[in-house]
Design a protein that fits this description.
This protein has 2 helices and 2 strands. By secondary structure, it is an alpha+beta fold. Strand 1 and strand 2 (14-19) form a beta hairpin. The longest helix has 31 residues, at 21-51.
Amino acid sequence: MTGVSYVTNQKGKATAVLVSLKKWDEMQQSLEKLRILEDLKNSFKQMEQHAKGKLTTPTTSQLLAQL
């Protein structure tokens, strides 16, 4: 994998990883996309529960109280 270097001790055991800033940014973008997808997945599950009547819809007052 380019942009990644491993630091090893005297016995050859990897003890740390150095990641280039470019690779780090790529990884952060990928993680953000995964977070967004996970949020969407959870939202669809909640919508399904609402449709089945297993989850009640909060009132506007309840939503504002959470802020």
